[in-house]
Amino acid sequence: MPRAKPVYVDIYDEPLTEDVEEILARFQLTDSVRYEVFSSIWREMCFSDVFIGIIGMSEMKRFCRITLGTAVKYFLPPYSYQIRVGGLYLMFALYHTQPAIPPVKIRFALKDWPQIQKFVKDSEDSGHLDVVYIYQKLVATGAIHYTAMPHFLSYQKQRKPKKKTVCAEFIGRTTAVLDLYSADVLEELTNIQSHYENLKEATVEVSRQVNMTHQDFTPRLKDCMSEFLMWQQKTFSDDKDQKSGDDEDEENKAAEAESCSSRARLLSSIKQKSYGNFQEQSKSRRHRQPEAVDSSSSGAEHVRESASVRRRRPPSLRARTWKSLGVTREECQLQPWLLSAPEHDRVPVKRILQTPPYKP
Question: Does pLDDT of 266 surpass 70?
Answer without folding.
Answer: yes
